[in-house]
Amino acid sequence: MGSCEIVEEKDEATLSKHSGRYGKSVLGSSSSKDFEGRKQGEKYHGSLEYDIDKLFQSISVKTSTRLRTSSFHNTGTSASAGPSSPSMRMASPRVFVETSLSLKQALRDRCVSKASEMAALKRLSKSAAASPRVSEADRIKSLYNQVSCNRSGFVPVDKGKGSLVERSLIPVNSDKASTSKSVPKCYEEPSKPISEPTQNKSSKGSCLSSRSGDDQIELDEIVVASSVKEPVISLPSDNATELEKRTLSSTLDLERRGKLENTPCSGTEKKVTRMIPRPKQKPKRKIILKKKLKIGIVSVSNTTKKDEDDVSLDASANKLLCQRCHCSLKSTSIDNQPPSYTTSHNPEVCADSLSSEAEIVVMKQEKERENPASSEKFEFSLSSKDSLVGDYSRSTSMSEESNLSRFSCGNKPHMSMDVRWEAIKHAKLQYGSLGLRHFNLLKKLGCGDIGTVYLAELIGTNCLFAIKVMDNEFLARRKKSSRAQAERDILKMLDHPFLPTLYAQFTSDHLSCLVMEYCPGGDLHVLRQKQLGRCFPEPAARFYVAEILLALEYLHMLGVIYRDLKPENILVREDGHIMLTDFDLSLRCAVNPTLLRSTSPPGNDPARSSGPYNTSNCIQPFCTMEPSFQVSCFSPRLSTNQQQGQKPKRGNQQQMKRSLPQLVAEPTEARSNSFVGTHEYLAPEIIRGQGHGAAVDWWTFGVLLYELLYGKTPFKGHNNDETLANVVLQSLKFPDSPLVSFQAKDLIRGLLVKEPENRLGSEKGSAEIKRHPFFEGLNWALIRCAIPPELPDFYEFGGRQEAAGSPGGNDNKYLECKAIGEFELF
Ligand SMILES: Nc1ncnc2c1ncn2[C@@H]1O[C@H](COP(=O)(O)OP(=O)(O)OP(=O)(O)O)[C@@H](O)[C@H]1O
After folding, report:
1. What is the pLDDT of residues 223-233, one digit of tens each?
2. Where is this region: Disordered (predicted)?
3. Mind listing the domains of the chain with CATH numbers?
4. Is the CB of 466 under 6 A from ligand 1?
């Protein structure tokens, strides 16, 4: 025991007598050499010098003895021993208990005991220090093992626990005392190399939905790998794609951890665990893509192009989209550090979209089997502004849903405060299920290709809706059921301030009905006609196209290529903001939103050397953070007029001072051969029949801006054929009047590039367009709060409604409430 070491007395008998059970230890620890030394000093025995010498001797002998008997010492000195531990207290009692000693002896003993006390203190402090050293060494060792295991692609089953738990997002369970016990189960399972899940194409089920240990372990690996900052370059580099995936996964994980650190519930962590891997591609049937669609996954991290079977509608991508949305909305944190991807949607809606996709897939197959030639047909519309449809590849069957169970305000966060939701919900409770009979049809708003739209009031409420009524038999006869289905599917997905909200859908008397948000302000085509010179002033045009751009961005994120942009389809809501409507020509496809982090030096865009940019993008487009002076989701715009060294492809260039991550949610690989659109708005690639993708929306976006500014479309001919020829062959010209800014023309020029691959937006979608100087200073996130150029004339609307026979005669009251409520939403 420790106390024995300091009792280096020649009075062995005394010691043996008084130290009790320690006596043996004393003897056992005394060396013969010590004893000899003591003998040699007998001549001084009894003198003070002798005592002092002995004191020093005893101390030095103690040190050497302790060193020699370190194992013993270690056994006797626990790491927890402190100054008040038994080992400390043992020496002192011995002094006071001794009664037969002379004064000198007592003094000597006193000195010895003091010295022993000091030595004990010293030793104990060393011991106490030594213990943490030992545990620290263990920890380092454990960390080292962990790192080395990770470098070899495996996670240690046991040794890594201690450090893993520090990185765990799961709150430590209080009833689990040891840190290793608090490690989530998934961490304790053996893992496999990081790259394996992403390489395993044949793996059944997305890792997003799978709860298998493998997927969870993948998170584990990523967490460890990122936390030890393992340089990617040190990994085997024979597979570049894998390397990038690992890098991305690792950094994505960091991002997620940053976001979720504030998330206390373990349920969220589970969600994170499953969403971390990149979405796996579901094996798809070629037949789906045959002739009509070639839908692919866009991945900016150089994902190699998969074979056609794999390149298809990607359910897991949508699911990821959904999950990411959920997280970002909840966390509302802004983390500019690592790349991540985010988008908006909610899980239930996404699930709907997935089932819809599956439905379309099956329907497409059925349709192709039934009538392979049908997909080659197309119809021409009557006027140059009417939509062309050449896509019959979709099914003629329609699955009807006649209740509202899937709809709730919870699914549409941006409308959650809307009184119309409450009215619908209440009516559903009251009537069981909704039907046309529960609405008063007040007025016919218009007639489209697949149905008629009515202004309707939900009986017993003051709530107005636009109900699109479609005759199922007519649709089936005219082979338009698939278009109706597509529109319904898309409407169900939407939750965006510039896109329609679908409140309900039902089928009654062979009629399919879609209950949507009503827009009293007419459409942009009508509004433009009312403008001086039949064109909008540039700020107004800028406002409208900016809102359209956000709507298109959202649609592209959801894998919807709109394909029918024109002023007639842009409705003006009662608050003066716009609503893009009419989705029956839209194309559904897969998309893989990615947040790109630029690695190039400031001033060079990583993906495009040309094209105008600024840095005013909100990184997280659905960031719910309130604007403030301290924290903003906007970065200061740091653009400069300095020209880049590289010769620009398009127009005036602005150099980026700082490169920020870019959200890319462009379905760049989606393809369709359908002849779809409106003559004056048709993109050249559609007319040439070369197949088209998402870039057609950016072409039409350019035509729209042109028309809003100049009051006419750029390639309009005397007839439709001439228009089509102009689109393909004629170069873009700008009229001399009205005067339009250079930036506006430059943007139009960038958009109306005939080769889709060189068109602005074709690579990174809206992210590229938003950075154009035309939008300089625009607050994208808050545009919905901006005052619109024009507010609809409510009195005129009220008069119309009255004429339509609105019941109750309380229209004005309703409008007042509604207008206030609507403004509150924004
Ligand atoms: N939510 C709405 N609020 C107000 N008016 C609407 C609404 N939805 C549609 N309309 C109007 O109803 C008319 C018919 O619309 P619908 O979408 O059925 O056909 P469309 O726009 O002509 O296109 P398509 O023929 O391709 O279906 C349009 O003139 C449109 O302005």
Report:
1. 222 332 332 22
2. 1-40, 174-213, 639-662
3. 417-518 (3.30.200.20), 519-596+661-793 (1.10.510.10)
4. yes
